[in-house]
Amino acid sequence: MGWRKSRQPVAEAVENNVHTHEHETTDADDLAKPLLVVEGVERTFQAGGQPLHVLKGIHMELMPRQLVMLRGRSGSGKTTLLNMIGGLDQPTKGHIFFHDLPFHDMSDDQRTKVRRKEMGFIFQAYALMPLLSAYENVELSLRMAGIPGGQWKARVEHCLELVGLAKRMHHRPFELSGGEQQRVAIAKAIAHRPSLLLADEPTAELDSQMAAQIMSVFQTIIRTEQVTICMTTHDPTILEVADHVYEMVDGKFI
Ligand SMILES: Nc1ncnc2c1ncn2[C@@H]1O[C@H](COP(=O)(O)OP(=O)(O)OP(=O)(O)O)[C@@H](O)[C@H]1O
């Protein structure tokens, strides 16, 4: 594909090529090219001295501002793939390009740099700091991303408003419902303006009404924050809001 030919050397690209705060200026060309490309990805683990082939040739694309779901039974390889997309693990074989950057070729440090700037993560269990308020939890993520302190207040308030928690900003996690805690986790994950949000079973702990609220928040932030979301799920009832569903069976898409 043409857009890959203009790739800069990786180290330079990690520093220069990834535009964290320029989503507003995305033009039609940028919307037409994938944010992430997975080509022929395989992943083999050594388990008890035997090779375990968990991913067996995965091809996929994430386009800008899409909501993409990976669906499949427990053990089919969804989390393994999500870890690979997030640069937390590397393929045994195949290629992963994120924003033109070859994740399969990059060092841990290089991938970590890109991940901190460009990605947000949401997990099944909400991963909030229990002693900090909703506000402080979101602020912490801006502090860790190295965003200047002068920008924190407006951004924290904006993100908590986006997820519908403006009135609960000063509550601590134990004073919030599971769905509200997950919405704080979403505010936390988008605060530093990532272009890709990865969510592993984000609705698994929630009842259907709360799960629907989470999906509605996802749709809002795709529109307003211009993120792409890739999530895993077991839940057939939420698939209808996806732009694309990849169905995984035994390490392959069907
Ligand atoms: N680091 C590892 N070492 C050995 N085996 C692993 C490792 N990580 C994952 N596996 C195995 O790979 C298979 C797929 O696991 P994975 O967590 O990707 O599935 P999943 O579809 O996300 O399942 P679930 O829905 O239960 O989270 C499982 O059999 C798991 O035991």
TrEMBL record:
SUPFAM superfamilies, per the entry: P-loop containing nucleoside triphosphate hydrolases (SSF52540)
Region (Disordered): 1-28
Keywords: ATP-binding, Nucleotide-binding, Transport
Protein name stated in the entry: ABC transporter ATP-binding protein
Gene3D superfamilies hit by this protein: P-loop containing nucleotide triphosphate hydrolases
UniProt cross-references to CDD domains, sorted A to Z: ABC_MJ0796_LolCDE_FtsE (cd03255)
Basic and acidic residues biased stretches: 18-28
ABC transporter domain span: 36-254
Organism: Paenibacillus rhizovicinus
The keyword Magnesium appears for this protein: no
One Pfam family this sequence matches: ABC_tran
A molecular function (GO) term: ATP binding
Keyword flag Nucleotide-binding: yes
GO annotation, cellular component aspect: membrane protein complex; plasma membrane
